[in-house]
Amino acid sequence: MTQEEPGITLTDEQKKKRRSRSIAIAVVLGALVVLFYVVTIVKLGPGIMDRAL
Amino acid sequence: MSLVERQDTISQDSSVWDGGMGSVSDYVALLKPRVMSLVIFTAFVGLMLAPGSVHPVLGAVAILCIAIGAGASGALNMWYDADIDRIMSRTRNRPIPAGKVTGDEALAFGITLSIGSVVTLGLLVNWFAGAFLAFTIFFYVVVYTMWLKRSTPQNIVIGGAAGAFPPMIGWASVTGSVSLESFVLFLIIFMWTPPHFWALALFKSVDYRAAGVPMLPVVAGETSTRHHILVYSLLLAPVGVAPYLLGFAGPVYGAAAALLGLTFLALAADVWRKRDGDVARLACVRLFKYSIFYLFMLFALLLGESLVAGA
């Protein structure tokens, strides 16, 4: 049996900061999804309705 | 070979992890928001002056990408310059010297944003503008920060090009190319940068000397710096009027730019005349503050005229 590595234990302060950074990253990623969606519609224009039946 | 070698600081205690302490606002500070605001403004003016039109959403995306690219350059600059930032009073509260963000975290942040901004600009707007933004980041980080800044007193003369490219990128976002007009916008900021920074360096020369950064006042002396400021101001004043002379700005801009340029020149002459004591320092501070107003006014006038003409 191998002994488990202790690794890094985060302090409460580090955990708090990590949580706020994670939320910020989530917001940015969400905004990017919306941005690419909107730009796709802008670039395609009326062609977005032009679908083969 | 640099005059000042970069010094890395490595924690001696491997059991302590000093990372993960940066808050969102620390990461925002890495982007140099004040520099970013000037980049956003000048890039926006370049975009608005360009012939043709761009969809407002794509225009906003272009400005956003240019701003993020500029911020990424700032983060990479702070990563590389952390050793000298620790020494200078003006910069010692930046996130890395203050111990809030580690150098590795700033590096990763800067590289991620650089790639993200360039690829997004290329994919959503056009690849010429994307490539131009990539070149600008490279120029600021590698040519200016890593090479020129610590090796020559001409650092900000050549390195100033990086800060002058944003209006050209804004222009290129619309046209997919560069032109004489966009080059003139570049030239205004390029000629403005040396007297602006040398005025700052004159009243912060103690800081630069302590950090070993070969700014002009440190290497060539304060008298030589004052000569340089005057010469560059003499060159800047007509360059500021060039948009009118070349026909892409109106007479209101032409008259205002001439007046603003003459005032710049008068303040530069004041710096040149007053060599000692508090009056000399005050003259430098006044020129430094006025230079920011000068650049803002030139671009605001160009923007105002283009909006009036388009209405």
Largest interface: A-B, 15 and 12 residues
Radius of gyration of chain B: 20 Å
> How many separate domains make up the residues of chain B?
2
| Mean pLDDT figure of chain A | 85
Assign an overall shape of chain A.
elongated
Number of strands of chain B: 0
> What does the average pLDDT of chain B come to?
92
Multimerization status: heterodimer
Characterize the biggest β-sheet of chain A.
Answer: none
Q: Structural class of the helices, strands and pairings of chain B?
A: mainly alpha
Write down the secondary-structure element order of chain B: HHHHHHHHHHHHHH
Keywords (chain A): Membrane, Transmembrane, Transmembrane helix
Protein name (chain A): CoxF protein
Transmembrane segments (chain A): 23-44
InterPro entries (chain B): Protohaem_IX_farnesylTrfase (IPR006369), UbiA_prenyltransferase (IPR000537), UbiA_prenylTrfase_CS (IPR030470), UbiA_sf (IPR044878)
List the defining traits of the structure above:
heterodimer, A: 53 residues, mainly alpha, B: 311 residues, Tetracycline Repressor, domain 2, 14 helices, CoxF protein (chain A), membrane (chain A), transmembrane helix (chain A)
Account of the 3D structure:
The complex is a heterodimer of chains A (53) and B (311). Chain A has one helix spanning 12-44. Chain A has 53 residues and is mainly alpha-helical. Chain A has one domain (12-52). Chain A is elongated and about 60 Å long. The mean pLDDT of chain B is 92. The N and C termini of chain B lie far apart (54 Å). Chain B is flat. With 311 residues, chain B is mainly alpha-helical. In chain B, helix 3 packs parallel to helix 6 (127-148) and helix 5 packs antiparallel against helix 6 (127-148). Chain B folds into two domains: 1-176, Orthogonal Bundle (Tetracycline Repressor, domain 2), CATH 1.10.357; 179-311. Classes of the chains: A mainly alpha (53), B mainly alpha (311).
